[in-house]
Every structure is written in structure tokens, then in C-alpha cells.
Amino acid sequence: MLFEFRASPEDLLPPFTAGSHIDIALPNGLIRQYSLCNSPDERKRYEIAVLLEPSGRGGSRSAHIDLLRGDTVRISEPRNMFPLVNARHSILVAGGIGVTPILSMAEHLARRGASFELHYCSRSVARTAFLERIQSSAFANRVRVYIDDDHGRGNLDVSAVLRAPSPETHLYVCGPKGFMDYVIQSANGAGWADRCVHKEYFAAGTIDEGKDRPFEVVLASTGRVVPVTSEQTVVQALALHGITVPVSCEQGFCGTCAIRVLDGVPDHRDAFFSDEAKAANDCFTPCCSRAKSAQLVVDY
């Protein structure tokens, strides 16, 4: 479903950049993040698309069922964890609903006459969001669409698309985790530099929680020690001791809850931090990440 949010007639919405998302307070009380998919040049509206996930945690279902035309909703200002950089050429690769931030990028690049190409993969014609919009767009000749049940469109040849890495060419990929991992691994194998590969996951990977062990979080500001059981998240453990950490996605991909780590080794389970940031071990997401060491000393 496509949703359009508008400010009151006399107001402009806060500006945003391609790749941005907003937090939306849904009618069922959940807060979820959705990428903006319209042109960043627009100031009177925000557009998002929400894929119904029947086995999800309830956010998409509330959007589909509870959000009605004319409703007033509370949203955050746009934030961008997936920004475009100034490049000679951009390769945009989208899988499924991952096309939402990619579409905004294409709109932005096309309006500025920048060099880019867009490769969009989908399972079926019925589930290919924005197909008509893309085909009638001013940048339609820069787009290749690949649909599993439409064999006439062919299949994405990732090796061919990524065959010529260059410091002046940047890759942007968004979609289901397996799809993204395949594209990113292909880029690594073709010799792409990490700084030229940009990604945004919609959820963190699946973790075997059966091997989780208890540990302690030490608050550097007070020296207070908070035990975290194997069944708790750090956020939950802190809350039981009256310590509130702001959270949003609760899955480790928005960065709202990120806390500095002063000592100890985090067990990073987020999709927010880059591999380099995770290796530094100086910050972690307490909504889902844990500890490899017996203690984590945090700047809180």
C-alpha cells in the first residue's frame, strides 16, 4: 500500500535527502521506520510504501488496516542512514520493497542530470511496486526490471553489472537480506572498495538466541551494575532498573538506541553499524546486541 502524508495546507514539511526514512507512530502503538520514496525536491508531502508481512510483528498490518484516509499521524523528522554521495556514476540495485529508498535516489539523480542505472528485481508482476510509475518516468531508459514470473525480462547478471569497479562509481543496494548479501558479496569478489558499497537493511539477521549467556552492564556515570539475563535485551534489563533508553525499531537497524562502549566487547547483532564501526567496538545497539565479555562498561 502507498501512503501519502501531508502537512496542513499552509505548512511545508521538513526537507529530506534521497535515502531518508521517517519513524511513524502507528495506531496500534508501535513505532516503525519506512523509507521515503518520493522526490526530495517535494516539500508538501512524504510518500512511503508498506508491504504487508502476515508473519511480522504487527507494524505493517496496523498500517494496512488501521491507517485510514484523513487520519492524523505522528511522525519524526526524516533521518538518513543511506545517503547518496557525489559520484561520477551510481549503480542502484533494489530487491522487492527495497525499491522505496532506491526510487527516491533515482528521482534525485534524474532531476540533476547525474549518471546512474537502476536494476530492480521482484518475484512477481503483482508484487512489483511502482512498476507503472517507473516505466512512465523520465528515467525509464536507465532502468532494468527483472521479474521471476516474467521470463521475458531476463535475470539480473550481477557479475556483469559489477564487472568494472571504480573509485568514481558507487553501488547502492536495498532489499531482503539474502538478496543484499548476494549482491554485496559479488561486489566484494569483483574488487569493489568498501567505501563504494552502500547498503540499507530493513531488519537484522536471524540469531540463535539459544546460546545467549548472561552478562553485566556497568554505567560509567554512576558505577551502577545491571545484570542482563540470557532471556533479556539490554534495553529490557535497564528498564527494570528504572533506566530508560530511547528505542524505535527494536531490531538493530535504525540506530536510535545506540550507546557508547568504554570497555568490554559487544556481540554486535545490528544492521546499523558498518563492519568497520563494529570492529572498533566503541558503540553498540542495546535493543538487540549483547556482550562477548562478562561486562560492558557504557557511557550512560
Characterise the protein shown here.
Its cofactor is FMN. It comes from Paraburkholderia solitsugae. Residues 1-85 form the FAD-binding FR-type domain. Keywords: 2Fe-2S, Flavoprotein, FMN, Iron, Iron-sulfur, Metal-binding, Oxidoreductase. Helices cover 19% and strands 25% of the residues. The chain has 300 residues and is an alpha/beta fold. It has three domains: 2-75, Elongation Factor Tu (Ef-tu), domain 3 (Beta Barrel), CATH 2.40.30; 89-200, Rossmann fold, CATH 3.40.50; 209-298, Beta-grasp domain (Ubiquitin-like (UB roll), Roll), CATH 3.10.20.30. Strand 11 and strand 12 (225-228) form a beta hairpin. The radius of gyration is 21 Å and the shape is globular. The two termini are 40 Å apart. The mean pLDDT is 93.
Core attributes:
17 strands, iron, 5-stranded parallel beta sheet, alpha/beta, 19% helix, Rossmann fold, flavoprotein, 300 residues, Elongation Factor Tu (Ef-tu), domain 3, Ubiquitin-like (UB roll)
